[in-house]
Design brief:
This protein is an all-alpha fold. Among the domains are: about 70 residues, no CATH class; about 55 residues. It has seven helices and no strands. Helix 1 packs antiparallel against helix 2 and helix 6 runs antiparallel to helix 7. The radius of gyration is 38 Å and the shape is elongated.
Length: about 180
């Protein structure tokens, strides 16, 4: 609220010629962004249109006071939107439909609870699948380490042994790699 007062407050004392509406609009949008407020696209288009109209109006007629021209229209629109009698009449017209829709509430609640229950059982099965995948991954990692250790041991022995035993240990090292690849 203080940010808006700081931004809009100085505008109240200035004449229409001294106000930079595009700059003020950018400051207001920065405030909205800083406070994580969402701005409806329709309002953004309206603000963009007002800035363009204001710029065009200043070019064509520098003494144009767009706010004094818009004040009667905006005042009547605001009074119409905030009129308590109009709002009560709208409520009175919508009340039967609202009351009829309350009969659907038990059915909707039941459907929601059934949906939650089915999601719970589906989550349990997914949890079991995840646990199985984790166990398989741990087993695969264990086999990888065993294969690596076997390969390293057979290669180390093959390099140390002299004679006809050396090719046998090389073959055993290759067989360990093939075993790990196939399993």
């Amino acid at each position: 609220m203080r940010d808006m007062k700081r931004t809009v407050g100085p505008m109240l004392q200035k004449s229409i010629d001294d106000i930079d509406f595009a700059g003020v609009l950018m400051q207001i949008l920065d405030i909205a962004r800083r406070h994580h407020m969402s701005i409806p696209p329709q309002l953004m288009l309206l603000l963009k249109t007002l800035v363009h109209v204001e710029g065009l109006g200043r070019d064509l007629y520098p003494d144009l006071d767009i706010w004094s021209l818009a004040k009667p229209i905006l005042s009547s629109w605001i009074k119409e939107q905030l009129d308590p009698m109009r709002n009560l009449q709208q409520l009175r017209q919508q009340l039967p439909e609202m009351l009829l829709s309350t009969t659907d509430i038990p059915k909707l609640l039941d459907q929601g609870l059934q949906s939650l229950a089915s999601q719970g059982s589906r989550q349990d099965s997914q949890l079991r699948e995840i646990q199985q995948i984790r166990a398989d991954m741990l087993n695969d990692r264990r086999r990888d380490w065993l294969a690596l250790a076997g390969f390293a041991i057979f290669i180390a022995i093959a390099t140390q042994v002299i004679g006809w035993l050396s090719p046998i240990f090389y073959i055993l090292a290759v067989l360990v790699v093939v075993w790990r690849t196939l399993t």
